[in-house]
Amino acid sequence: MTKRVHSRDVQEATKNLLEERGVTVLDIAEIVYEMQRPFNGGLTLEDCVFSVERVLRKREIQHAILVGIELDRLAERGQLSEPLQSIVESDEGLFGIDETIGLGAVLTYGSIAVTTYGYLDKNKIGIIKKLDTKGGGGVHTFLDDLVASICACAASRIAHQMRDIEEVEEEMAFVDIDL
């Protein structure tokens, strides 16, 4: 018989793993804010924190984080078989599986998330840059891409919500004119 894992346990494990690896929701939200602020003058950091928290509730994201961080941790302990150990430990440029997992996780949030993920993977800002440059030691081959994925998803959520709000406001203005 297989053990069924409750959603809240997966969510809690995901958040705990991120924090253990030095990544907070606020770190991620700050990048989301930087990405979306030019398009949304009323955006607050609190809006971005909320969006990140909502993204972290998605099973696809949680599973990607659990797998990626576990692989990073195994590489830190030298527990992967060669040549995978050396590839992950050195974050070899041609590896690409770390980006593939990050990209797979953003697909549920549409093309805006995909293009934002590509931008963040290329430009590495905020905590993503710190993780990529291995500041503080440790292996973060997967984590930097996973954080970029979370940022891209949260930014996409905000962009889509803003569009919905704009459309409702337009409809309301039209209704006011008709009255």
From TrEMBL:
Lineage of source species: Bacteria, Bacillati, Bacillota, Bacilli, Bacillales
| One GO-annotated biological process of the protein | lipid metabolic process
Which superkingdom heads the taxonomic lineage of this protein's source? Answer: Bacteria
Q: Which SUPFAM superfamilies match?
A: YutG-like (SSF101307)
This entry's Gene Ontology molecular function terms read: phosphatidylglycerophosphatase activity
Q: What is the species listed in this Swiss-Prot or TrEMBL entry? A: Schinkia azotoformans LMG 9581
Pfam families per the UniProt record, alphabetical: PgpA
Could you identify this protein by its name?
A: Phosphatidylglycerophosphatase A
The YutG/PgpA domain extends over: 31-160
